[in-house]
Amino acid sequence: MPKIIIANWKLNPATLAEAEELAKASDVEGLVICPPYPFLKAAAGVVKKSQLGAQDLFWEDKGAYTGEVSGSQLKDLGVKFVIIGHSERRQNLGETDEMVAKKIAATLQDGLIPILCVGETRAQRDAGETKEVVARELKTGLSLIGNCLPASEAGKLKTPNQNKFGTGQVKNLVVAYEPIWAIGTGTPDTPENMLEMIQYIEGIMNELGIMGTVVIYGGSVTSKNAESFLRHNEIGGALVGGASLNGEEIKAIVKIAEKYN
Ligand code: PGA
User: Fold this and answer.
1) Which atom of ligand 1 is nearest to the CA of 182?
2) Is the pTM above the cut of 0.70?
3) Nearest Cα to Cα of residue 7 among 190, 160, 216
């Protein structure tokens, strides 16, 4: 499975012209570019090698939901991936695990690939609560997955009709472990801790009966430290914020990832 690098532009850049320029400068195979909604169409028109992602979606398809954007609208623009439950949304907008669960279900229902973000705050890490937090975010965030299965698959569920997890039916799911204290701080987690967290996350995915999840790392990844993470087979890629706002920098990270494909 080739490594996947996700460029999360967040609320950047300021103008359409800059967004087009950045998309052009970043365009490389193995990269998923996630611009703000207003720049998605322009980015889709510019990129030839990268894939397109969105930074969020809403769980309903249409209706009276001011300000929201649906999975089918995103799909129509050529979006393939959707970041769900980023800690900045959880912290700034009060996004809960229950909301995340609905968004994950909607993403899968629309045939898009969710990138579920999980991770603890500095205080939670210091209190030794990291695994507890990640387990809750995963178990609640993925609790509606059984709902997204087509009827023909529903009979294969461990506990059909109870909103429980599918047994290996979900093939396209990315989990991004992003310790909140490492995001945008210039201080990434250690690869050793990431490997321990991957093992833990995979254990939970097994428990849930969800197979083949790709687990990636996020938090202050740059071309300088990317290799220390990406050289490990277990680490499926990286979610990159700040460093993705520079075309040369993100391409350098993708190049490092390619070495280990
Ligand atoms: P960062 O952001 O690379 O700027 O730390 C990562 C993220 O928030 O996904």
Assistant:
1) 5
2) yes
3) 216
Q: Is the CB of 241 under 6 A from ligand 1?
A: yes
Distance from Cα 135 to the centre of ligand 1, integer Å? 21
Residues contacting 251, CB < 8 A, separation 6+: 25, 26, 28, 31
Single out the residue of 246, 198, 202 nearest to residue 221, CA to CA: 246
pLDDT tens digit sequence for 142-181: 988 875 555 455 444 443 333 333 445 566 899 999 999 9
86 as an active site residue: the answer is yes
> What is the number of structural domains in the chain?
1
Residue 232 among the catalytic residues: no
- Residue closest by Cα to atom 3 of ligand 1: 241
Which candidate, 254, 258, 215, 239, places its Cα nearest to that of 9?
Answer: 239
Residue 232: band (very low, low, confident or very high) from pLDDT cuts 50, 70, 90: very high
pLDDT at 158: 41
> Where in the sequence is the domain holding 61, given as residue range(s)?
4-259
Q: Check pocket membership of 178 for ligand 1, CB cut-off 6 A.
A: yes
Output the domain CATH number for residue 205.
Answer: 3.20.20.70
Q: What is the mean pLDDT of the chain?
A: 91
Residues tagged in the binding site annotation for substrate: 8-10, 184, 220, 241-242
Which pLDDT score, from 0 to 100, does residue 230 have? Answer: 98
88, 95, 120, 178: the catalytic one is 178
pLDDT in tens, 80-100: 999 999 999 999 999 999 999
Q: Residues 192, 195, 201, 203: is their CA dihedral positive or negative?
A: negative
Take atom 6 of ligand 1 and give the residue whose Cα is closest.
Answer: 241
